[in-house]
Design goal:
Length: 373
């Protein structure tokens, strides 16, 4: 029994899901001057800030998450007083900025706040089970996999699969230390890409059984996962391919059925070639093969919410019959030869089966297959 998605909400540097998708279609880039931290010390001058998080550098991930939970739960008609509701929050950093502030002499934060318990119950009263998982940049995809398991096993009536992350000084410093020339924009799959930049974001997908009354945005066929532990940061094409294969084995779908890939596409030296190699290994490569798009050139890398931001984009592609281009992609890297990247302008196309990729540090990978309802 595959689960379905009854609600979806997003917050990025462009705003909500509709605003984000419109920006993608229009070729917008949400990068701007770094607002938190010293660019000279961090060796980072640019980021994709989310206006919806406000100006305060603290608790930004929580504010973004709260907006998404309220919107998605409201759209899907979630009622914890009548349904067994579980909330899974995938994140790379949790509320690390609050810990950084404490380390510098600030107030000690409540543990429940660091793990998003306080903010979730504030906007969705009555929820008892709130679980945070920290699975790097595939955290949202991992939450989606667990959500489907809970629904299919009958352990919940509704699961909110969430992802959220905001900028922190330590994460910015780490990125700044691994590049000689700081990037000013993310250019996924481009031969002349300079590296990744962080974006703030949150996303929520409401996962329910197929027979639950209410809206159905997409059918969650399966999420394949792998944890290859190949390297702390360097991705392994074989580990990525195993996550893809796992998704197909769980869903019963065939690779040739995929007609759109919403790729991870970080614009880094190692990730983009590895993702291309895995795609070429698992999916058929031909003139009528799957289209490939990616969003981080527009939104930046939204870390723990990246997979679910991609899910929202996939749902909108299916509903609207249009696929946005890979913003920042001008010349495809050698490993991507033969893949059908959408470039330059949106493409009119109504996908039936979408593959959504998300890969994290340490080889924590998640690949979701989403079907049009």
């Amino acid at each position: 029994m595959a689960a379905v998605i009854a609600g979806s909400a997003v917050r990025t540097c462009f705003g909500d899901g509709a605003q984000t998708f419109d920006a993608l279609l229009g070729g917008a880039v949400g990068a701007g001057p770094l607002r938190h931290g010293d660019p000279a010390e961090l060796n980072i001058s640019t980021a994709y800030h989310a206006a919806a998080a406000g100006a305060d550098p603290l608790w930004r991930a929580s504010r973004l998450l709260a907006a998404c939970v309220a919107q998605a739960a409201g759209h899907a008609g979630v009622d914890p007083s009548r349904e067994r509701v579980v909330v899974l929050v995938g994140t790379g950093l949790r509320e690390l900025s609050a810990v950084e502030e404490w380390a510098l002499g600030g107030t000690r934060p409540r543990a429940r706040s660091l793990h998003f318990g306080d903010v979730v119950t504030a906007v969705l009263p009555g929820v008892v089970e709130i679980i945070t998982i920290s699975n790097a940049c595939s955290a949202g995809g991992q939450a989606l996999a667990l959500a489907q398991d809970l629904i299919e096993l009958g352990d919940a009536d509704v699961v909110l699969a969430c992802g959220t992350d905001a900028l922190t000084r330590s994460m910015l410093a780490m990125i700044g230390r691994v590049t000689r020339e700081p990037a000013t924009a993310v250019r996924p799959f481009d031969r002349d890409r300079k590296g990744v930049l962080l974006g703030e974001g949150a996303a929520v997908a409401v996962v329910v059984p197929p027979d639950r009354p209410g809206p159905v945005l997409g059918r969650l066929a399966a999420t394949g996962v792998s944890c290859d532990a190949h390297h702390e940061t360097a991705p392994d094409p074989e580990g990525i391919a195993r996550a893809m294969t796992d998704a197909f084995e769980r869903s019963g779908c065939e690779p040739a059925q995929v007609d759109l890939v919403v790729a991870h596409g970080t614009g880094t030296a190692l990730n983009d070639p590895a993702e291309c190699q895995a795609l070429r290994k698992v999916l058929p490569v031909s003139d009528d093969g799957a289209l490939v798009t990616a969003v981080k050139g527009a939104t930046g890398h939204t870390s723990g919410s990246a997979a679910l931001v991609n899910v929202d984009v996939a749902l909108r592609c299916m509903a609207g019959g249009v696929v946005p281009p890979v913003i920042g992609l001008q010349t495809v890297l050698e490993e991507g030869t033969g893949l059908r990247f959408v470039t330059g302008a949106p493409t009119r196309f109504s996908p039936q089966l979408v593959q959504i990729n998300a890969f994290g540090f340490g080889g924590v990978n998640a690949v979701t297959l989403l079907e049009k309802p």
